[in-house]
Amino acid sequence: MARYDRQRSARRDRARVRCPVRPVRGLLGAVPTDVVETDDEFVVHMDLPGFDSADIEVKLVEDRTLSVTADHGESDESVDGQYITRERRQQSLSRSVRLPAAVEDDATASYEDGVLTVHLPKVVEDADDGTDIPVN
Predict the structure, then answer these.
(1) What is the 3-state secondary structure (H, E, C) of 84-109?
(2) Residue 105 above 70 pLDDT?
């Protein structure tokens, strides 16, 4: 049994040497997102590292769903030499967030240091206490 464990360990070590760059778990399928609710708005923060602001598209679908897509194409830069590993070719992602209440169309978004921040003002509902009916 000890021999089997040593062989398995040796294979694992060889695999680490062959692939020096490993994909980071959690970033390939999920977009880390926080949604904060205040009295008058929702604030959505999304981690989108590696994108430029021109790569990001933000839409409000209907009045309660925020849709974010980001697409970064292949770079046309010339390189002296031959690639050994090339993992930065194409990167795209999409995420939709359903908000708990309707929001106005005048949302604002900013992108800084790999974090997208979207401010979505809530729909202001008129306090309708009904119609007064005079009593004769």
Answers:
(1) CCCCCCCEEEEEEEECCCCECCCCEE
(2) yes
The 8-class DSSP code of residue 51 comes to -
What sign for the dihedral angle of Cα 95, 101, 105, 106? negative
Q: pLDDT digit string (tens) for 35-44?
A: 999 999 999 9
Which residue in 118, 116, 98 sits closest to 108, CA to CA? 118
For 56-84, letters b (16+ CB in 10 Å) and e give: bebebeeebebebebebeeeeeeeeeeee
User: CATH number for the 25-74+85-121 domain, one of 3.30.230.10, 2.60.40.790, 1.25.40.180, 3.40.30.10?
Assistant: 2.60.40.790
Stated pTM of the model: 0.65
Beta bridge partners, 94, equal: 69
